[in-house]
Amino acid sequence: PSVDPQRVHQVREQWRLMLAQELHADWVWAFEAHQIHEGYRPNAEQSGARSLANMALHMLCLNAVRQGDPVWPGRAYQRVKSAGNMTDRAAALSALLSSHSELCSAALAHFHASARGEALVLDRWFALQATAPEALPAIDGDSASGRGSGSGSSTSDSSFARAQQLLKHPDFSLKNPNRVRSLLSALCSANPSAFHRADGSGYRLWAEQLQALDAINGHVAGRLARAMDRWAHLSEPYRSQAHRAIQQVADNPKLSNDVREVLTRALQPA
């Protein structure tokens, strides 16, 4: 009847860590056996091979960071720098972000520099950071591996904190709908581990940015408002914090019709 987002995240991440460790040899095989050596072609065969190899790299980085092994994160970083297509480059960056590798900062800087101002690539750069899962809290036996809350890495700040900083980035603007979707919508709708926080800071960020966006573009703001559609299904303390944030925005007399319609419907009793 109710959902605890952080508990779901904890169980999911523990399963991923277990699969990364127990199937290590299989992930190595999957990565090595599905490299594409001919030119890039957007066909089903190449797409399938790339998808499997990139999933394997993701799991290999996850296990490597947990074990303190620099090899696979190093290979992922090299792939960020030298991959011949955006699919592999973005997947390698995602692998470093999701595993909370100490190479994240350098990889992010390289990816941003190589974008050369291309809007779609910059959108991807923002979205990859906004959707990176939060690190699990430290557990017994993991403190030395750098897995706990980003310890031992240059990304010790959380994904949520990184997203907050990105709101101030020169390449971000609430006036750019695609940039709003790649950062704010991605964080609020596609990253439950970072957005649903017991202290309500994710919901407060949503309320603040939603009202600022609504003054610029009510249609895009209406889409962002829907990130809280299912707040009533949350367990406590998330439910109360979410309701407070929604009510705060709904009390704004200057809301657009798009946002007001979404929030009015969300606040109606089930």
Word description of this protein:
The structure is a single chain. The chain has 270 residues and is mainly alpha-helical. It is built from 14 helices and no strands. The chain has helices spanning 5-22, 24-33, 44-67, 71-82, 86-99, 104-115, 119-130, 159-166, 177-190, 192-195, 201-214, 218-225, 238-250, 257-267. The model is unreliable at 140-156 (pLDDT under 50).
Please give the structural blueprint:
Blueprint: H1 5-22, H2 24-33, H3 44-67, H4 71-82, H5 86-99, H6 104-115, H7 119-130, H8 159-166, H9 177-190, H10 192-195, H11 201-214, H12 218-225, H13 238-250, H14 257-267
Short description:
With 270 residues, this protein is mostly helical.
> Cα distance, first to last residue?
13 Å
Low-confidence stretches: 140-156
| SSE sequence, one letter per element | HHHHHHHHHHHHHH
**Number of distinct beta strands:** 0
Using brief descriptors, characterize the structure shown.
270 residues, mainly alpha, 0% strand, globular
